[in-house]
Amino acid sequence: MNISGNSILKMHPLARRAENEEGILIGRTDISNFIVLPAIGVEIIDMLDEGKSIHEVATIMEEQLGEPVDVLDFAQDLIASYQFVYMVDGEVVNESVPVVDHFSWIKQSTGQFFFNRVAFGVYGIFFITGLFICLFTGKYIPVYSDIFVSSSVTVSVVVSFLATWVFLFFHEMAHLMAARSLGIGSRIGLGHRLVFAVAETNMSNIVLVEPQRRYRAFLAGMSWDAMFMGIGVILLFANDQGWLTLVPFMAAFIRMLNVILLMALAFQFMVFMQTDLYYVLATKFQCSNLMVNTRLFLKAKFRSLTQDEQEEWEYVADHEKRVIRWYSWVYLIGSVWGIWFFVQYQLRMAVDFIWIIADDMKNAPLHSWEFWDGIMLILLVLVPFLILGWSWMRAYRQRRSERERTKSLQGT
Q1: Which pLDDT tens digit goes with each residue over 229-260?
Q2: C-alpha span between 411 and 387 (Å, rounded)
Q3: Of 281, 314, 293, which Cα lies nearest the Cα of 215?
Q4: Count of CB atoms within 10 A of residue 377's CB?
Q5: What 3-state class would DSSP assign to 248?
Q6: 3-class SS of residue 36
Q7: Distance CA 197, CA 190 (A)
Q8: pLDDT at 407 over 80
Q9: How many CB atoms lie within 10 A of CB 212?
Q10: Cα–Cα distance for residue pair 266/376, rounded to 1 Å
Q11: Which of 20, 16, 14 is nearest to 317 (CA)?
Q12: In terms of Cα–Cα distance, which of 272, 305, 80, 283 is closest to 195?
């Protein structure tokens, strides 16, 4: 997109919040694209949006500051890099993106009922009670063998598969409701973290909320996982004490759930990926984009940064650079360990499991239950890998489309 000093720009609706004494967070909520600009940058955007030409704005800013301001270059960034500009001289350059939040019928007051200090206290009481029972009895600590709820491998795999995804949904719903309690819409979907398929809640617009108020949304999923696990331990303990009666399958089902919930909680401590506790960490240390900037820092150790990358690194705040210097070790070591764990355990176990099933199926007739039972088990084992492959391809297409679009807007 070629623009000149006479060009007139029309912005998309832009939300904003004071980030600190010097910077203002501003951006589009439909694509969740935000940056922190000094007040002068926001003032330039507002004047451009009022219908003043680039040349007129440059003249006004030079009179105010006593030195030239490259408004034309800034306008190019607003168009191509930040995508804040809707039209240039009446021509649409960045389309509006319609966004429909999931479960929009859930009211803000409902989210506030389930996620406030009292509610978090109740969730904590259930978890701590269950933890004390585990520690003092030594009987209810989840172990891997608890994943088998039946002597039938098929029943165990199907039940654990369904339970895992149901409670993943509860985990993400907790994030969604907690974000809604802050007046932020969100959407639940599938994605990946490093080499692991995950369910995720997109609540990117939470940056419009003051940092100290974001923790409830980040910790909501873990709070429900911990609560459900605590309730499970309490129910098993009450059953053994004769205070209530659980049928054997129900008791086995609760033990299986506790394994799943414990693994879900442990996963969130892998802060070298964008887990719930990663966002808590980044917010605590006031890091605007810790993961991306850490990758930039590590790139500089192995090759020269491009001009765009150097400019990006220069804009990273000094306090974030200090955090990055120690977090980069966490990220690097954790990523290597995560890939090793994936290959050595998740991938190898899946391959071994499929090999065993295929070996049992080879003599089974095509119309037999044994054959279709094996097919179903193989498909269930492959689901996480299919999600991972789909998410990788989607991310690749999005990056390629963004690069092509940026080149087109820059006229290169």
Answers
A1: 999 999 999 999 999 999 999 999 999 999 99
A2: 36
A3: 281
A4: 21
A5: helix
A6: strand
A7: 8
A8: no
A9: 8
A10: 29
A11: 20
A12: 272
- Distance, CA of 178 to chain centre: 15
Tokens of 218: 């980040």
CA distance 182 to 217: 8
pLDDT, tens digit (0-9, with 9 covering 90-100), for 281-315 = 999 999 988 999 999 999 999 888 888 888 889 88
How far, in Å, are 124, 144, 233, 310 from residue 131 at the CA level? 10, 18, 8, 49
DSSP 356-400: HHHHHHTTS-TTSHHHHHHHHHHHHHHHHHHHHHHHHHHHHHHHH
Task: Look up residue 76 and give its amino acid.
Answer: Q
Distance CA 181, CA 68 (A): 45
Whether 205 contacts 214, CB under 8 Å: no
What letter does residue 67 receive in the DSSP assignment? S
Please say whether the beta carbons of 24 and 37 come within 8 A.
yes
Cα radius of gyration (the chain): 26
CB 190 within 8 A of CB 106: no
Rounded Cα–Cα distance for residues 30 and 283 (Å): 22
Residue 246 to residues 114, 131, 252, Cα–Cα distance (Å): 28, 21, 9
How many whole angstroms from its chain centre is CA 83?
Answer: 22
Strands across the sheet containing 91-92: 9-11, 85-88, 91-92
- The closest alpha carbon to 190, from 175, 202, 182, belongs to 202
